[in-house]
Amino acid sequence: MTKDTTLFLGQWLRSPGTVGAVAPSSQRLAETVATPVPHRGDPVVVELGPGTGAFTAEIQRRLGGRGYHLAVEINPALASFLSARHPKVDVVVDDAARLPELLRERGLDRADAIVSGLPWAAFSEETQTRLMDAVVAIMGQHTAFTTFAYSFAKVMRPAQRFRRRLHDTFEEVVIGKTVWGNLPPAFVYHSRRPRSFESGSVGA
After folding, report:
1. Could you say which DSSP state residue 26 is in?
2. Between 20 and 30 A from 174 (CA), which of 8, 84, 145, 164?
3. Do 112 and 92 touch, CB atoms closer than 8 A?
4. Could you tell me if 111 and 139 are in contact, meaning their C-beta atoms sit under 8 angstroms apart?
5. How far apart are the first and last CA of the chain?
6. Taking the model in full, what pTM does it have?
7. Which residues are 47's β-sheet partners?
8. CB-CB contact of 144 with 192 (8 Å)
9. pLDDT tens digits, residue range 39-73?
10. What is the spatial distance between Cα 183 and Cα 160, in angstroms, rounded to a whole number?
11. Do the beta carbons of residue 157 and residue 149 sit within 8 Å?
12. Contact 95, 68 (CB under 8 A)
């Protein structure tokens, strides 16, 4: 096994509820989930649950030295590994529910793209609510939010609950094709325009 896989598996065995997978995501899945990262300008990209950095590397490749990349990882061991591998990324050990505070501490209030590697279907309804509220709070009118789910879990109640939450939260939710080369196979949710914009309660 690679160093990434060994570390990932070890952390999953210690805390399966927060790591949520037994192996890092594939390059194909990383390419798909990072699609909304802008190719121009100096975008603010926020990454949630980066793990050993499969998505991080693809985001950095797309940024090409531009913009600002904040990665929020709750697992200290994974965060330390990620910081050493990607010194240009601002890696913080914290709860993703604190996203608005984390951005304000850095003089920012909005993200241009939010890429999530969090195991949403493994979270309780209360935790999903806290995290999704934090995500929406840092979105602007044109911010994209992407996350992934495992294909085998589509029919499970937690996964169905999360899909309903996405549709209840966003005006636009596009479900990508299955990435069969991932272990296990997965697909990506592409979401935009939080419905709370309709009432003017979220930023411009």
Report:
1. P
2. 8
3. no
4. yes
5. 46
6. 0.86
7. 71, 115
8. yes
9. 999 999 999 999 889 999 999 999 999 999 999 99
10. 21
11. no
12. no
